[in-house]
Each structure stands twice: as C-alpha cells, then as structure tokens.
Amino acid sequence: MSSLTLNLRTIRLIAPVAVFLTVAFLVFHTYRSPGGVIPNIRTPDAQPDVPSPPPILGGHDGSDRKGSFKFQPPEASVRHGVVRGDKIVWTNDNETVWQSVGRDPNRPECWTYEDRFGVYKKLSLETAKIISDNNKNSKNRRAVVLRLGGNQAWKSHFIWHVRSLVLEAGHLAGYDVIISVHLDMDQEKKAAWLKKIPEELRPLVQTFSTQDLKKWIPKPAEFKNVYEQNHTPVQMFMARNPKYDFVYTVENDVRLIGRWDTFLADVDAEYAFHRKHQERDQNLSDIPDLVTFQSVRRPRADWPWLKAESEQACMKQFGGMENIRSSLGVVWGWSRKLTDSLTQYNKDGLNCYFEYFAPSAAYHQNLTTFFYQHPLYCPNRSSPSERHSLAPEDLGKNDPRLVQHDKVAVGCTYYFVKVHAQPFWETWYRNPEACRPPALVHPIKGDFFN
Fold it and tell me: Where are the transmembrane segments (predicted)?
C-alpha cells in the first residue's frame, strides 16, 4: 500500500513537467517547421501592424540593390528643441539673435555645420558607387531634379550639398536624382565644363540648351529665356522622361539644414493628413499637383511681371489680377497632370512668367496645390516678417485649407533675396560651435558656397 502511494505521488510530481516539455517541444517544432505558423493573437484594443519604413539599404521594394555596404547618414549632435517659448532660437553663438516666425521644427534637434556635412567631405569608394548608381535600373516613379547653370563654380561646400541631396533624397528616400544643367556652349567648352563635376556625380547629369527649349516648346507658344520661363525645362524633362509621375525641382542656391529624406517624408505625411481629413466638397488627389514652400497668394499690384506687355495675353486668359496666384518657385513639386496642363496652354499660344503660371494654371484647372508650411527664422525685431495668406474661399477647390486659415509668415530665411538667409548660413559656417534648427534656406549666394 505504501509503495502504491509513493508511485502516485511520483506521478503527480512528474506529470506537470512532462506536459510542459511536450508543449515546449510542439511550439519549438512549429516555429522551426517551414510550414509552421504561430498565430498572432490580439487583444480587442490592439493596433494593426504598422509597416516598417523602407530600409536604409536598397530601394522601396525592399531589395538590397546597393550591395552590402551600409551608409551611415548624418545626425544632429544636439537632440533637443531649441525654439524657446518666446520663439527665440538657442543657437550657441553670439551673432544675430534669431526668432522663429513660422512653424516650429518637427524634430527636437540642432545641427552644427560639421554635423550636417562632415560625412560628405570625403567619400569611401562604396559611398561614391551608391551615388553613381542611384538611378541605375530604377523603377522609381518620383524624382528630384537639381537645377544648375553654366556659372556653377563647383566649390567644395556645394559638392557636399549635392552629395547630401543624392544620398538622402535618393538612396535613403527612394527618389531618382537628376542634375539638370542649362549649358549654352560649344561642344569643346561643354566637355571642359562637365569635367569640373566630381566623378561620382557625372552619371546623374543631364544637359540642355536654350535652343533645345525653343525647338521643344509646343507651338504657337514661344520660349524667351530660362529666367522668365523656368517651367519650360521642367515640362520638357517630364515629356522626355515618361516614367515619372511627380518631380521636385530644387534651384542651385537652395540649402537644407536637416536631412532631405526626413524633410520629404514630412511633406508626404502632412499631405496625407490633409487628404484624410479633407472636406466633403473636396477631392484631393493621391499626390498633390503643385507643392509649394511659400504661401500661395495674389501678387502685389506693383509686381512688374503683371505689367509687362508680354504677359497681357496670360492676364486676359486667367481673368485679371484677382484670379492670378503666385508663390516662390525655387523648390516646387510638380505632377505630370500639372506639366501636361502647362503644355496645353502652350498649344493655345500662352507661355507666362513662371512664378504665377503654374500656380494660376493649377487654380483654374481644379488641380491640387499644397503649401507646406516649414520653419522660418528672422532677426529678433518687432516686425520680423511679412505675413500673407489667401482666405480659404480664394484657394483652389481642392487645396488643403487648414494651412492658410491664418496669416502665415513669408520671407526671412526662405525668400527671393538673401538679406536674412545668407547671414543665417554664413554665421553658422564660421562658428564651429554654432548650431541651427531644421530649415529650408534660400538663397545662398557666392562662389564660396557654390
């Protein structure tokens, strides 16, 4: 009897261990089996799986088309918000006191000049190959087009900027990057000029001439010059590159503090928010047709381009000044629908001044114009910036309206003159300890930076 009791007691002790080992074996076998699946059990409040961001290595299709080398992008050394409650910006220098007059930065960070461009000063062979191969065998439907002219000096600071654009917008964000150069030179001078471009960037270069534009433009419209009709090279580029649905154009004197991949992702996320919360009478397209980085507005009455004799046919077509829209065009995003619309106006005999042609065409053709409000910084003065905005009823039907309900800042570190942008940039460069919060900056002039 005592022996039986001992056996039962032993069984009771051993049984739980046996069950545990059996379950563990089954789970392990299921996990390692090629066909085994462990079910994803959720609580009722569980959030759906969030797709992982595109890998730093390779394209948006998840393929590792860049090889095994991992490019390490730059990071800000100050990981803290530097815009104070009174909008004064902590910059760690003793130069001009700057204040934020636009939107606060999306990220709490402050960059030294070395933070921003240090990794681009000297390239490894692997990084140089990533740059050269950025557009190779690409299936990208979107591109960034860097616009240059024959006066580009190709000094070191500009080269670092271009490398950052290719590696961040291209390699990290998944855009093709094209260096589009306007050259009116004979073949010998053109070949000598192109040799100034660093070797890793040469596969990304496309050139065109004024004569190319005059031949290409749909008749009866005429092409005058790139300064007044800066949209025509974009139209020609889109016509010759049908794979692209959307392109950003970036002028040579534009700079970015912060990274291009995060900046472009912020623009996409902002537009997606507006599209998700669009009003009932709106029909915002999957991608905006025109992306601007200055508010859309009516030109001032004394704007010389409205009075030029060459613009009168355009003014008549658009219904006078009340129906004209304009914006600073040094960085714009263009959909194929927009460039096709401009081409149709050309076929009707019109080719207008570029800073109002695209915004006005979008307004009249019921296309979507998206103004992305970004940080602006002005010297700390009582009236630091012009403020302007259209009323919501004066926007296009399919334009996101929330960003222009209130007066928004215009000018300072993103404007058509360099009075504030240039010192904001130069004092940053001259002081190694100084830092700057994220900013899209224009214009940066002079051979030293170009």
Answer: 12-31
CATH 3.90.550 given to domain 113-373+383-406: yes
Q: Using an 8 Å Cβ cutoff, are 146 and 179 in contact?
A: yes
Going by pLDDT thresholds of 50, 70 and 90, the confidence category of residue 301 is confident
Query: What is the 8-class DSSP label of residue 110?
Result: B
Tell me if 430 sits within 8 A of 405, measured CB to CB.
no
The domain limits of the chain are 113-373+383-406
Q: How far apart are CA 389 and CA 409, in angstroms?
A: 9
Banded model confidence at residue 42, pLDDT cuts 50, 70, 90: very low
Beta bridge partners of 176: 143
The token duo for 297 is 């507005």
Beta strand pairing status for 205-208 and 176-182?
A: parallel
CB 221 within 8 A of CB 351: yes
How many CA atoms are closer than 13 Å to the CA of 186, on its beta-carbon side? Answer: 1
**pLDDT tens per residue, range 343-360:** 999 999 999 999 999 999
pTM for the model stands at 0.84
Q: Which of 27-31, 165-169, 411-415, 416-420 has the lowest mean pLDDT?
A: 27-31
Q: Judge whether residue 56 has pLDDT over 70.
A: no
Nearest to 439 by CA among 223, 317, 262, 213: 262
Confidence of residue 49 (pLDDT cuts 50, 70, 90): very low
Q: How far apart are the C-alpha atoms of 199 and 155, rounded to whole Å?
A: 14
* pLDDT tier for residue 2 given thresholds of 50, 70 and 90: very low
Estimate the share of the chain in helix, then strand, then coil, as percent rounded to the nearest 5.
40, 15, 50
pLDDT value for 33: 35
The DSSP secondary structure of 190-259, one letter per residue, reads: HHHHHTTS-GGGGGGEEEE-HHHHHHHSPTT-----TTT-TTHHHHHHHHH-TT-SEEEEEETT-EEES-
- Structure tokens that stand for 167 in this block: 């590696």
- List, in sequence order, every residue forming a beta bridge with 83; answer none if it has no partner: 89
* Tokens 């005059």, residue located: 214
Is-contact 337 289, C-beta < 8 A? yes
8 A C-beta contact, residue 170 and residue 144: yes
Task: Give pairs for 385-388: CB < 8 Å, separation 24+.
Answer: 385/101, 385/409, 385/410, 385/411, 385/412, 386/410, 386/411, 388/295, 388/297
What local confidence, expressed as pLDDT, does residue 18 receive?
53
Could you give the 3-state DSSP secondary structure of residue 340?
A: helix
Average pLDDT of the chain? 87
Task: Compute the distance between CA of residue 215 and CA of residue 88 in angstroms, rounded to an integer.
Answer: 52
Please tell me the predicted confidence (pLDDT) of residue 96: 87
- The encoded tokens of residue 188 equal 């010998």
